[in-house]
Design goal:
Length: 446
Amino acid sequence: MPASPPRPDDDDSTDFSLRVPIDPGSDADLYGLPTEAKVPAACGHDPVERMATEFLDALRAGQQPDIEEYVKQLPQKEQEIRELFPLIASLEDWKHDREAEAMARDIPREFRIERLGDCRILREIGRGGMGVVFEAEQQPIGRRVAVKLLPRQIGGQTSRARFRSEAQTAAALKHPYIVPIYSFGEQDGMCFYVMQLIEGIGLNRVIELFRQGNGSLTAASIRQQFHESNSIDPAASMEVQKGRKTISTIDGPGTSARIIRSDAWMQIVRIALQVADAMRYAHQQGVLHRDIKPANLLLDPNGTVWIADFGLARPLEEGFSHSPRVAGTLRYMAPEQFSGQCDVRSDLYSLGATLYELCTLRPLYETTDRRLLLAEIQTSTPPSPRSIRPSIPRGLEVIIQKAVSREPSRRYQTAAELIADLKAFARSPRRNPFTWLKDKLRRRSS
């Protein structure tokens, strides 16, 4: 979850541990970050029973064990493993979700927390399914930061393991478009981590404002939206503003220029390029985000977009990953994710669905019924972007439609391919898209 977290949408040992390693001596190797815990070997005489116990322990440790690896270890029991292990994972997910829902209802409406570690808490700026985020001042250096807290009400074993994994994964990534993590800590039985404060808003809020008739957003309006996020009592408001310039004085000459307009396609392409570049880097580091959506992409007053919330991230293994778990936000999930399969093309599908919504101002699939939505994602073809907004350039429509193809083989295979097409479109937005696609094919064959 980001520094300026959006509100939720319609709204994760054995020899194949899936934690992301941190290189010794790297900036991510910070004091207080969790180290990888080993799950003790399971006991039992029946090999399937023993492996099932190991599998369940790995799930509860927040890992994503690959069923294929178990099949390789015991091929003579393949059918039994393939039938039993997904059932174990589904039951564990159901149990965790029900517990989380019940415990989340007990989270107090307001937190009376004055400090977390070396951070003096100023105000709450958002909350979601896996934590509450505060704006804070890190002392003694006086740096404004965001602090994400896992309240004890939802701090069960599985939740704590996922929260630690999120902190470790995000801290290992160093990229100008990924929200950086500074440190991790525990206090009074609660886990928290400290990250850069992004004074921006989620693209979901941008889309919402465009739908309401706001044709464009400026640096000043983005800052104002951030400072108005969540309610602030008068005392907290004075603390937040202490030492700051007001919004009107922050915006000097030129800073009130439009950051984004609802029909400025080059600005939207620039956003897509930033996100795709950050995704390319994460994939190169062996990390799948698995929850790319407008709410997890923050637009700041400089026009920079930041990827946030690595709570569902997992390592990218060689080839196509097979996981018993369905993870992500349903509306932005690729069809194959519902069968536990996920790779870089799934992440790129989610970016395509986000780009579709940013351009058309409506989601890829509009139904709010979960069962119908699941069926539509797996079987239906969404309306073409230009059938909704004819002003969308044909070239941009071609890119979006390729990104959200139901068949992974028909999508962009890497973020680099998507970046190449976005740049080609940006260079010649009025050019017939099929011309530059033919040129690309010609260059590949030569």
